[in-house]
Amino acid sequence: MGQNLLAIEPGIGAGPIILGKHRDAIQASYSYVYTSFFKVQTSKFRSDHCDLAGFTAHYDEYGNTKYIEIYNSEHQAIEYEIFAMPARKLTLSKLKNYLISSGISFETEDYGIQAPTIGLSTFNSQLQSGDEIIECFGIFKSRQSV
Questions:
Q1: Cα separation values, 67 from 1, 46, 61, 70, Å
Q2: Where would you tag: which of 20, 106, 120, 124 has the fewest CB atoms within 10 A of its CB?
Q3: Of 96, 104, 98, 112, nearest to 144 (Cα)?
Q4: pLDDT value at position 91?
Q5: For the segment 1-60, what is each residue's pLDDT rounded down to a tens digit?
Q6: Domain limits of the chain?
Q7: Which residues contact 80 (CB under 8 A, 6 or more apart)?
Q8: How far is CA 102 from CA 7, 52, 118, 134, 141, in A?
Q9: CA distance 46 to 114
Q10: How far apart are alpha carbons 49 and 140 in whole angstroms?
Q11: DSSP string of the chain, one letter each residue
Q12: Are 59 and 45 contacting, i.e. CB atoms less than 8 angstroms apart?
């Protein structure tokens, strides 16, 4: 896989952005500009948003990555794939078909799917049909690894 093509690994991470990794290591992964924000008022660590790398990392009270969002942005320098399919072009229907054929359980919700056994979710702000390209992938600890 090329330097600018990274695999989304549900329940693990994407490229150098790995669940459980400390915020300092995440920030050192890319030399791109980050913006930081508090997800909720009680957050001890700011979440990091990197538009050029197409991710947002959220941290626990110790500064370790607990949730990762991978998305497509207009000026993104990094491309992602998931299950050997280009993430930028993947529709919800194609992902569902892959999960079904692989025997991976998931739940369909108003804004996408949740597959807690592998640590993957999807999000579309105005999901109308399964033929829409997925806007955002969420990576979290799978139910099996907890």
A1: 24, 13, 13, 10
A2: 20
A3: 104
A4: 95
A5: 555 889 999 999 999 999 999 988 888 887 666 676 667 677 777 888 888 888 999 988
A6: 5-79, 90-145
A7: 5, 6, 7, 8, 14, 54, 70, 86, 87, 88, 137
A8: 18, 32, 12, 19, 19
A9: 25
A10: 16
A11: --TTEEEEETTTEETTEETT-BHHHHHHH--S--EEE-SSTT-SS-EEEETTTTEEEEE-TTSBEEEEEEE--TT---EEEETTEEGGG-BHHHHHHHHHHTT---EEETTEEEETTTTEEEE-TT---TTSBP-EEEE---GGG-
A12: yes
- Asked if 94 and 85 touch (Cβ cutoff 8 Å), the reply is yes
Q: Which tokens sit at 14?
A: 């994407």
**Residue given tokens 């993957």 in the structure block:** 120
